[in-house]
């Protein structure tokens, strides 16, 4: 923009207000353009960090990258972030893979609201329903995932495990713990409902197969309805409210695991 260049060149000797008046440029327009042309070099120290976030989370868009940076103590507005991603060509490395739905997921989609067996129950007795879910726990050097199963009436945690990834190995391990506890208590698994959301790890063949081979009934939250899994929402909410600062101060993964145990 020619006028901007003239103003930058002559604002010193002639004064900014006079230059703006002569060239017919509003002060608000000048400062807007000045900010728009702000050099990206001032953010160079963030390049490696942003690149690492994208490497660890290749499906993240700029909103989730911004949130991840905030978790690292870096406050960066979405506008400069998008400029940086484009200027550094980091967006070229972000390939979103749309995983094909499993046969189970397709069946659930066809069932609609009927996937939630718990919702229609007037009362829930002891050992009749087990809620399961995964949550992310942040600590000083990164994050890990906690998978857990909660008995609906007693609110007792009957299975839990941690992992660096929210994968099927994590949820299957928690499921086996929960089933072992129920068997120890003399519970007939055919009378138990395991309820969880429709995340891919919970609709995968490995997890569902582990449930049904024990005769367990499987129930799911409706898509986009976290309130369908109130037991885990409440449990994880309290956990993070009461322990967030303690987890954040932990320096290693083993420290976090020790705190959870």
Structure notes:
- With 261 residues, this protein is of the alpha/beta class.
- It has 3 domains: 1-37; 40-98; 103-260, Ribonuclease H-like superfamily/Ribonuclease H (Nucleotidyltransferase, domain 5, 2-Layer Sandwich), CATH 3.30.420.
- Helix content is 49%, strand content 14%.
- The chain has helices spanning 2-14, 16-23, 27-36, 47-56, 62-71, 78-87, 103-111, 168-184, 200-203, 205-212, 230-249, 253-260; strands at residues 129-139, 142-151, 157-163, 193-196, 217-220.
- A 5-stranded mixed β-sheet has the order 3-2-1-4-5, sandwiched between helices.
- Helix 8 (168-184) runs parallel beside helix 10 (205-212).
- It is elongated and about 90 Å long.
- The model has no long low-confidence stretch (mean pLDDT 88).
Distance between the termini: 61 Å
| Biggest β-sheet: strands ordered side by side in the sheet | 3-2-1-4-5
Rg is: 26 Å
SSE string, helix = H, strand = E? HHHHHHHEEEHEHHEHH
Number of helical stretches of at least 4 residues: 12
Estimate the global geometry from the Cα principal axes: elongated
Structural class: alpha/beta
Second CATH tier, the architecture of the largest domain? 2-Layer Sandwich
Question: Quick one: CATH superfamily of the largest domain?
Answer: Ribonuclease H-like superfamily/Ribonuclease H
CATH class of the largest domain: Alpha Beta
Number of strands: 5
Largest sheet: 5 strands, mixed
Q: Briefly note the CATH topology name of the largest domain.
A: Nucleotidyltransferase, domain 5
Number of domain modules:
3
Are there runs of 5+ residues with pLDDT below 50, and where?
none
Quote the average pLDDT: 88
Strand content: 5-15%
Helix content: 40-55%
